[in-house]
Amino acid sequence: MSQRTTGQGGGVNPLRDPQDRRLPRIPEPCALVIFGVTGDLARKKLLPAVYDLANRGLLPPGFVVLGFARRDWGDGDFESLAYEAARKHARTPWRDEVWARLIGNVKFVGGSFDDDAAFDRLAQTLDDLRDSHGIQGNAAFYFSIPPAAFPVVLKQLARTGMADNAKSGGWRRVVVEKPFGHDLQSAKELNDLVDDVFTREDVFRIDHYLGKETVQNIMALRFANNLFEPLWNSKYVDSVQITMAEDVGIGSRAGFYDSAGAARDVLQNHLLQLLALVAMEEPTSFDAAEIRAEKLKVLRAIKLPQDPHLDTVRGQYLAGWVAGERAVGYHEEEGVPPDSTTETYVAVKLGIQNRRWAEVPFYIRAGKRLPRRVTEVAIMFKKAPHLPFNATDMEMLGNNQLVIRVQPDEGVVLKFGSKVPGTTMEVRDIAMDFQYGEAFTESSPEAYERLVLDVLIGDRTLFPDAAEVEQSWQVIDPLEEAWQGTKPEPYRAGEWGPRAADEMLGREGRAWRRA
């Protein structure tokens, strides 16, 4: 007999099976405490996500948003900021009645991170909300703050007992935004610090790419169908290309970006997570621990380039044109040193040392000021071992491809050869194109909607653990060491990166897919 769930009133719902995922998952009464609530992330992503979740009926009646920032504000000031942020950036249609229900549950505590009195007030506010809003001691702390501020905030949460599940009488969780350190050593120190204050099961390291529907669809595509998995190996796959292209520059992020670069900013987290999902073995169940175990096996099996100078490329954009508009070069961006050697483009050839992927190269590239914004995974299949057609009839035939578009225009494209109508046997590539926006009536939730909801529910499936983070740095640190003292290759804004990236694939008879 299946286990039955207990409702908020303490009764048992005999019709609800916890394994039935068709019913909406709604958290227990709780508070979401956002540190750095006046920053871009909170205003553009987190507060709109809270409204969208409320609009979809996925938040409990006893739910509170508690903002913390260095402002001399009352609840009314924060309500105004939250209203403007949600109204401007919400994904779902605006409904005043939804906001009216939320507004009474929006609170603010002002103070700096080293202000003991402010954290004492925060702790008292959470205690008061237990009675006034019935949150039962449940709270998630979202660190929408620079990593340098993590230690002092964690120590304050430890000092006040706010991180203690037993003392609070409910659950206490922490959400940590990337970057998870800047190398392996700093990542270990950060992981140890967070795991020391909170229990390991209550730490959620957020990678917003894993909240995207199309990223989760990689697992559905592979493991819910028998069509692709038999071909998902070195016998049929020639190579895999993972592309994350951005048409924008660094904007106002010069302070962070110039000390990080493309490899630390997106390769270490987003792109290696995509690689792990594409290459992992089928888990025994759709359980968080099982999925993370399979991803970790892939990350540990990554084979680094034997010669980083041949199989990696770093680039830096010069002035050029993107989408018909003039774009300045990286050195002309505000806050960037004129002699900076930070890369804004990176391309790397990696291997995976296991039976499934032996000898299959994984080409990963990411860059800014490229012709257009696109993130995709392309599985490039081997050509048929024998083609009975005339060579001239196949000039337009390339490799079969399965392309998973993560953003924008989310969907899946299957490219294969077909006869051209006419009196001759001419064969060329055509595409079958599935788009989320056309196939489903409900639009995909924004990544932060899914991830915030998962935190409040306690579902860690889409969150990398400490071992994954540290193993990813084991890939990046040797590359960064090999790049020491080198200068990135120049490319003009609006181009698909440096010429050396094309030559890297060209030496092996391959070419980048035109994204």
UniProtKB/TrEMBL annotation:
Key words, A-Z: Carbohydrate metabolism, Glucose metabolism, NADP, Oxidoreductase
What are its E.C. numbers? 1.1.1.49
Q: Which reaction does it catalyse?
A: D-glucose 6-phosphate + NADP(+) = 6-phospho-D-glucono-1,5-lactone + NADPH + H(+)
Binding of substrate, residues: H208, K212, E246, D265, K368
The active site is formed by: H270 (proton acceptor)
List the SUPFAM superfamilies: Glyceraldehyde-3-phosphate dehydrogenase-like, C-terminal domain, NAD(P)-binding Rossmann-fold domains
- The segment(s) forming the Glucose-6-phosphate dehydrogenase NAD-binding domain are 33-217
Asked if the record carries the keyword Glycoprotein, the reply is: no
Cited function: Catalyzes the oxidation of glucose 6-phosphate to 6-phosphogluconolactone.
Name this protein carries in UniProt: Glucose-6-phosphate 1-dehydrogenase
Natural source organism = Plantactinospora siamensis
Q: What gene makes this protein?
A: zwf
